[in-house]
Amino acid sequence: MADTTTETSFKAAAYSARGTARDSIPLPGELFDGTVNMPVMHQAVKAYLANQRQGNAATKIRKFVAGGNQKPWKQKGTGRARQGSIRAPHWVGGGTVFGPIPRSYAQYVPRQVRALARKSALNARAREDAIFIIDRFEYDSPKTSRLKALVDKLGVGDQKVLVLTDGSKQNVFLSGRNLPTVHVMPYADVSTYHLLWSDVVLIESEAIGHPLTPLAERDEADAKHSAPSRATKAKSPAKKAAAKAEGATKVKAAAKKSPAKAAAKKSARARSKPRTSKKKGK
Length: 282
Description:
Elements: E1 11-15, E2 21-26, H1 38-51, H2 111-127, E3 131-134, H3 144-153, E4 161-165, H4 170-176, E5 182-186, H5 192-197, E6 200-204, H6 220-272
Parallel strand pairs: 1-3, 3-6, 4-5, 4-6
Antiparallel strand pairs: 1-2
């Protein structure tokens, strides 16, 4: 039974792309008006699942089975029942009667009915406070850990999450492809099935006509990596001065010890020289 209760005060929690909470924003009233039509959603989901079927199942009737072009034995005189072909349906290896053949399972749903079902699914999620608005998805490269961190920070890591972007964004799609409970797709391509499949819907702000200015944030991982580098930069002049002083002392010590080392080397060479003995001639 259709539920047409109208509510024009739907609001959704807003977050940044890193998961920082922002002020909640009102959802557009022309789309989120509280309409939830169950029969229409059922029709749309049933048609979507039917349209995914390929309908390739096929069997051969007796005229398509190889062999059996002549009678297996003569009509009379054998004492057995008359037979016309070994490919008759009652023979082993024969044709199939009323078997499946390739067909289309496609179901057509009018455009306005599809739009009403999609609108009903969005309103159903809005009633459950399961719609979150993200200011902007800006991924320079695919990074699964970044999208995983956002989902975990919102506290929906154990739920089915549908991410709707403003247009096609390949890097965001590739970032969520390895997450089994996250599905990324453009907002314009979302269907009633996908909305009802999900437990939480993340919508980019520009997709619903309410653009938000992104916050200037950095990843926690980047901050951890950058903190040691700053400390090393601050200590680098002191380290350089200590290294110079240590090198100078080493040079001075080597200069002082050089005469003694030279004398020791000479004595060692003299000792190591073999003594030659002169043979007396006869």
